[in-house]
Amino acid sequence: MANCCHYNPDEAGRLFSRFAHRHRRHYQHKGLSKSQRQLTRGITLVGIRGATLLEIGCGVGYLQQKLLEDGAASAIGVDLSESMITQARQVAAAQGLADRTAYHVGDFVSIQDRISISDITLLDKVICCYPDAERMVKQSLDKTRRAYALTFPKNNWFNRLGVRVLGGVMRLLRIEFRNYVHEPREIERWATERAFRRVYTAQTLLWHTRVYARVQDSDTTTDTAAQ
């Protein structure tokens, strides 16, 4: 596990709050990123119609709101940033989705007892911002009935160098926040231990995209690889 002494949820929330308006404008102008399109494709393969969603690190909420428009029944969003959650609520209301969404401010690991179990859990570029990936992954898997979808950085030299450089900048700015590159084989093992099997795989230059299904729901599903 990475060194957790640099993780301060309150400071991380304040840091992310600075980008809330930018994230909302970026989606309005450019839509989903390539890795997010891969994520939604993988989720669609396991079946989204009528599903309940839990998105950890939901940001301004556009990913789960897109899935609601595609047929999901309802969504819970959790984020460290109060500004992100404020934006998410505003966007949901503007799209007529307020009655199908619920948002919580906080560190999921700390508030998970207040979060309901959902059919599908999403973590889009989340565990790279969390030092104790094992705890985050296992606790979020425990909140998942059917499918678990996530994007996370490839464990390659470029990402490791980027994390070191960004960490140096954060130290100079005296910001108690770090990014992390976690081992993909460990993530696979944690999912397998919770009776999930990988059913969808894709990647970009920097990111892995994976979708896991609970074993009893995935016996007839074939792992799909996309480049």
Protein model, in words:
With 227 residues, the protein is an alpha/beta fold. The chain has one domain (4-226): Rossmann fold (3-Layer(aba) Sandwich). The chain contains nine helices and eight strands. An eight-stranded mixed sheet has the order 3-2-1-4-5-7-6-8, sandwiched between helices. The radius of gyration is 17 Å and the shape is globular.
Concise account of the structure shown:
With 227 residues, the chain is α/β, with parallel strands linked by helices.
Counting H and I runs of at least 4 residues, what is the number of helices? Answer: 9
Number of domains: 1
CATH architecture type: 3-Layer(aba) Sandwich
Q: According to CATH, what is the class?
A: Alpha Beta
N-C termini distance = 29 Å
Mean pLDDT: 83
List keywords for this structure.
227 residues, disordered N terminus, eight-stranded mixed sheet, alpha/beta, globular
Topology, element by element:
Blueprint: H1 9-17, H2 20-30, H3 34-46, E1 52-56, H4 62-69, E2 74-79, H5 82-94, E3 101-105, H6 108-111, E4 118-124, H7 133-141, E5 144-153, H8 157-172, H9 184-193, E6 196-203, E7 207-214, E8 224-226
Parallel strand pairs: 1-2, 1-4, 2-3, 4-5, 6-8
Antiparallel strand pairs: 5-7, 6-7
Helix pairs in contact: 7-9
